[in-house]
Design goal:
It is built from six helices and ten strands. It is globular and about 45 Å long. It binds adenosine-5'-triphosphate. Adenosine-5'-triphosphate binds next to helix 1.
Length: 233
């Protein structure tokens, strides 16, 4: 029997003040696959991710995670959410933040906070308070948190924002390694400047709430950093 998709949405729709923001949407993401959600500013990408993460309630439709109706338990176990605003404690240092978040959400075996900091290019910043980091460094720290998460389904809202070219390549290597290890990722972006390099399908949102979902494949592969090779535990 085939494994169920990691994430499946049927007829998913969200409105504000009776104005549709998106949907109805039908899509699914299998293990080993990335879904790129593209759309202009205000087209509903963040709203969709917040609905999938359980932070907003959909007006219509269903979300299933690993074949079960998505409830708190399923989301806690399966979903790691990288939001626009990094969920970091400004007055804790980078390492303390990662230890705190691992305490809350768990941690992949064989991955340690110090190692994750090195992977995202923040070696040497272990004692730096988060409020002293640049926007790109905060984004890198938030990515380290995602890397440490044991959840197989990554919901990444604009993961390339604030990152330099090296940071964009880092995101792509992380996504590639995560997919190779059986994970999946849903990635939003409003531009074509960066996209996950592997097994990518496209879901396009329009500001009017109208959607189109061409099933394009992009099988280009990215170079792998030794730190990311081997993927998740
Ligand atoms: N808290 C809110 N209250 C009311 N309206 C909101 C709220 N958040 C977003 N919106 C509206 O919902 C629509 C979709 O916003 P959303 O943030 O999902 O878009 P987006 O595609 O992620 O945009 P961007 O590319 O600019 O990040 C927009 O019209 C926005 O103004």
């Amino acid at each position: 029997m085939n494994a169920p998709p990691l994430l499946a949405a049927q007829g998913l729709a969200f409105s504000r003040n009776d104005e549709p923001v998106f949907g109805p949407l039908d899509f699914h993401i299998d293990a080993g696959e990335a879904l790129l959600v593209q759309g202009d500013n205000g087209s509903g990408k963040t709203t969709l991710l917040r609905v999938l993460a359980g932070l907003l309630r959909a007006d219509a439709g269903q979300v299933q995670i690993d074949g079960r109706a998505a409830g708190h338990k399923e989301r806690a176990r399966f979903v790691a959410y990288l939001s626009h605003l990094p969920a970091l404690k400004a007055d804790l240092d980078t390492l303390e933040n990662l230890h705190f978040l691992c305490g809350l959400h768990g941690r992949r075996t064989r991955q340690m906070p110090g190692n994750a900091l090195a992977i995202v290019g923040l070696a040497g910043y272990e004692d730096t308070l988060v409020r002293q980091l640049s926007a790109g460094q905060k984004r890198r720290l938030a990515l380290a948190r995602i890397w440490l998460s044991p959840a197989p389904l990554w919901l990444l809202d604009e993961p390339y924002a604030n990152l330099d070219l090296d940071g964009i390549n880092l995101v792509n290597r992380m996504i590639s390694a995560h997919l190779r290890s059986g994970g999946a990722a849903l990635v939003t972006t409003h531009g074509a400047y960066a996209a996950p390099p592997v097994q990518t399908r496209l879901l396009r949102l329009s500001p009017a709430g109208e959607i189109s979902a061409p099933a394009g494949q992009n099988s280009a592969t990215a170079g792998q950093s030794p730190a990311l090779r081997g993927g998740a535990a």
